[in-house]
Amino acid sequence: MASRPQELLQLLTRAERLSVRRVQSVLDEFDCSVEAWRVLGLLSEGGHHMSVIADRTSLPAPTLTKLVDQLVDQNLVYRRIDPADRRRVLAYLTPRGMERRQRLDRQVRADWLELGGSDDEELRTLLARLADALEGRATTDREGRSVERAH
Questions:
Q1: Buried b vs exposed e over 26-36: b needs ≥16 C-beta within 10 Å?
Q2: Gap between the Cα atoms of 75 and 100, Å rounded
Q3: Which of 31, 60, 109, 150 is 20 to 30 A away from residue 98, measured at CA?
Q4: Could you tell me which of 109, 150, 130 has the C-alpha nearest to residue 11?
Q5: pTM of the model
Q6: Long-range contacts made by residues 30-35, C-beta under 8 angstroms, separation at least 24?
Q7: Residue 80: what are its φ and ψ, rounded to 5°?
Q8: pLDDT (tens digit, 9 = 90+) per residue, 102-150?
Q9: What per-residue string of b and e applies to 101-122 under the rule 16 or more CB within 10 Å gives b?
Q10: Region 5-18: what's the mean pLDDT?
Q11: pLDDT for residue 114
């Protein structure tokens, strides 16, 4: 880690802002926001409850609801009542939404590779380890193996 947490936080913030700016510049060609792209990406894995989508995309519930409403209006997403719990709503990609997500991902990946995306796996590992440590869920031992922490 950086010698001071402040330095690390500054580097992470700068990298996040520049990354989002770069991805948004690609998505602008498709009139799509980074937030919508994240939702489409998550829903490409299958249907999810709105609370799961909000959590995994770091969007407040009211913002997510408005965004999903827009995606429904564009015929990219549809909602269904959860048959296991009729009080909850599941969101899914439509076939058009899946096509759109694939097209967006191809463009974002192509642009990302121009940055030298060969270090993606190492960066992903380091960031996941940091996020897990900050959440207090896991840590690594001296040999770099992931170890669950007791809560």
A1: bbeeeebebbb
A2: 11
A3: 60
A4: 130
A5: 0.80
A6: 30/100, 30/103, 30/104, 30/107, 32/100, 32/104, 33/67, 35/59, 35/63, 35/67
A7: -140, 150
A8: 999 999 999 988 877 666 788 888 888 988 888 886 545 445 555 554 4
A9: beebeebbeeebeeeeeeeeee
A10: 90
A11: 83
